[in-house]
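Take a look at the protein record below and flag anything odd:
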Amino acid sequence: MKHAITKIEERIARAAQAAGRRVEDVTLIGVSKTHPAELVREAYAAGVRIFGENRVQEAESKIPECTDLPDIEWHLIGHLQRNKAKKAVQLFRLIHSVDSLSLAQALGRYAIELGLAPVRILLQCNVSGEDSKEGIVACNWESDAQVRSDVTALVAAIGEIDGIRIEGLMTVAPYSDDQEAVRGVFRSLRMLRDLLQSAVPNHTLTTLSMGMSGDIDVAVAEGATLVRVGRAIFGERTYPTV
C-alpha cells in the first residue's frame, strides 16, 4: 500500500507543478468505504491522514476502531439523508455532500444543539447532468439563466443558515475515457464556485473536492484542493456477503 500511495502523491505533485500550483494546496483523501479499519491503519501508517466514508452506518462502527490514531480526520463523501444528519455532525470533520436547503438546516440545527457549530460543509453540485449523480442541479448553468438563478438563490439561502460553514463545492465526474469531457466538468465546477462566492459573502469557498483514481491529473489541473482516491490505494471494493 505504501508504494501505491507514493505513486498517487507523485501524480498529484506532477499535476500541480504542471498547472503552476503549489503541491501543498492539494490534499489526498483515502476513500475507505467498504474497507476495514485494518486497511485504514495501514494507509495511515503510509502517511494518509484524511479518510472518506460513504455511509454514516459504516463509519459509525469503523471510526471508533481508529480513535487511537492522532490527527486522523474523517469526511463524509456519500449521499446524506436528513435522518442521519445528527450522527454525521458528530462523526465527520467535513461533509462533502450537502445538496438541499432542508439538509443544511438539519445540519446547522444539530451542530448548534450539540455544541459543534459551525459544521463544515461542501455543496455537492451535479454539473454533468447525469441522472445517476446526486447534487444540486447545475447542468448547463453557464448557458441557462434559469439554472444559474436557481442555483445562486439556493446557495444564498443555505449561506444564511446558522450553525454551518460552507467551505466550497464538490462534484462527481462521469466515468469516461474522454479526459477532455471530464475536464469540462471540473472546470465548470471551478467557475461555478467563483460565481457563487458573491452569493455567500460570509463564507469563503476555497475548497473544490473533485477527482478520483482515474482523473486525478485533470482534476488537479482544474483546481481541485481535495482528491478522493479509493481503488488506487485500497484496491477493489469489498462488500459483505448476504
Observations:
- The chain has a mean pLDDT of 95.
